[in-house]
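ingest -> validate -> predict -> emit
validate: passed (alphabet ok, no gaps, 124 aa)
predict: started
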Amino acid sequence: MQTDNRILDDLARVASGALSGVTGIKREVEARLKDQFSRILADMDVVAREEFEVVRAMAARARAEQGALEDRVARLEARIAGLEARLEAAETAPTQSPAAPDIDPLGDAAGNAGGDAGKDPAAS
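emit:
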């Protein structure tokens, strides 16, 4: 029976040693694959996650600002349309000018005939 135990103990040690060897190989393969992928990604000019998130936030802000500017432009266009309508209505409406004073074509507003509106009355 002790012989069976020794054989089993030896098999356990061999299996344990093989397993630790496989674990070491696994770590080495993982490290090499990671290095290889890092080199491949560096050659591809792939963006880092942090940079992507920053640009994504900038795009979201730009979309929000664009929406606000679109609203502002719409309000300004409506205001301009209203002002243009008022201007057009004012231009097409009949004008009622205030009563103009009677002006003698040859005189002044007081009706002095003879065109002496620009002369000094004391000089005559």
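Helices lie at 2-43, 49-92.
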